[in-house]
Design goal:
two-stranded antiparallel sheet, about 120 residues, two-stranded antiparallel ribbon, alpha+beta
């Protein structure tokens, strides 16, 4: 079992996603990543080149061993982005989301943000 995630507990959250569609569902609050571990330090050993991303830029991770650990913290502000609100309006316009479901989704986003802050 996992402890509840906290920004100030000193633990890294190790999660997995199954692909870009899963990531998109997570981004809009319709799904969650798969929790793998909580740790003070994480070591990742690659056996071959792996595709990756660093700050949104594509990158090929060579065969290596990475050690990740916390090195200070900075507060991060979260809010319902303009893009997310526009996307919800587009979904309503396309008939893929009715107004009641849109309101429920936005309330769920707000609840998640309150819990994570």
């Amino acid at each position: 079992t996992f402890k509840p995630s906290r920004f100030d507990d000193g633990y890294l959250e190790v999660v997995a996603i199954s692909g870009v569609l899963h990531l998109g569902r997570i981004r809009v609050g319709l799904d969650r990543p798969v929790r793998l571990a909580q740790a003070k330090e994480v070591r990742i050993r690659t056996k071959s080149f792996l595709p990756g991303q660093v700050d949104g830029e594509p990158w090929r991770l060579p065969r290596c061993e990475l050690t990740l650990r916390l090195n200070g913290q900075a507060p991060v502000l979260q809010h319902l982005s303009k893009e997310l609100l526009q996307y919800n309006e587009w979904l309503v316009g396309q008939g893929k989301l009715d107004a009641a479901a849109k309101d429920q989704l936005l309330q769920a986003f707000k609840r998640r943000l309150q819990v994570s802050q």
